[in-house]
TrEMBL record:
Pfam families: PAR1. It comes from Populus tomentosa (Chinese white poplar). Residues 1-24 form the signal peptide. This is PAR1 protein. Keywords: Signal.
Length: 193
């Protein structure tokens, strides 16, 4: 079952890449509200959906190019499969680190269907988490084992919606493990408790 799922995931990703190549140059301002969120322009800038209210009270949605660059991705419109697998919404008007605090969202983001098959979404949330001081693979490991190691508490949310990190951050290594220290009773180096 897992083997056939992996094969289907690889085929879906290959099909997505082929379709992306046939679309030509993606300009955020030419995308509609159903394709804007989680898209990347041909210049590598992320697209953002904005809402405005006209004088008549009618809501209008426009797609704009943000200053946030995607890591190694260009000309990308996220697939419906990834939007669903990662628990996202096409009408997202912004991203917030608060979503990483929601265990249901974190479980979907860290699921194999999302984490292993949706590089655009993973890159976006990897950088958002890094800007908050959280290592996304560590967060996913905690989700997988259903262990709360305090990673979620490390996310310091100010309660506002942020457009994402200004500069992409890419980790290529994990921090070195800290050696445990053993104290014995009566040791002068033993910290007071």
């Amino acid at each position: 079952m897992t083997s056939s799922f992996n094969i289907l995931s690889v085929l879906a990703l290959a099909l997505t890449i082929c379709v992306q190549g046939t679309l030509g140059e993606i300009t955020c301002e030419h995308l509609d509200q159903d394709t804007c969120a989680y898209a990347i322009s041909s210049s590598g800038k992320r697209c953002v959906l904005e809402k405005s209210v006209k004088r008549t009270g009618e809501e209008a949605y426009t797609c704009r190019t943000s200053e946030i660059e995607a890591d190694r991705l260009r000309n990308w419109i996220e697939t419906d499969q990834c939007i669903k697998a990662c628990g996202l919404d096409r009408k997202s008007l912004g991203i917030s680190s608060d979503s990483l605090l929601e265990s249901r969202f974190a479980q979907q983001l860290c699921s194999p269907q999302c984490y292993d098959s949706c590089p655009n979404v993973v890159d976006l949330y990897f950088n958002l988490a890094a800007a908050e001081g959280v290592f996304l693979p560590g967060l996913c490991e905690a989700q997988e084992g259903n262990v709360r190691r305090g990673l979620m508490a490390d996310i310091k949310s100010a309660g506002f919606v942020a457009p994402g990190p200004v500069k992409a951050v890419k980790y290529t290594y994990a921090p070195a493990p800290v050696e445990p220290v053993t104290y014995t009773a009566g040791s002068p180096a033993m910290p007071p408790y």
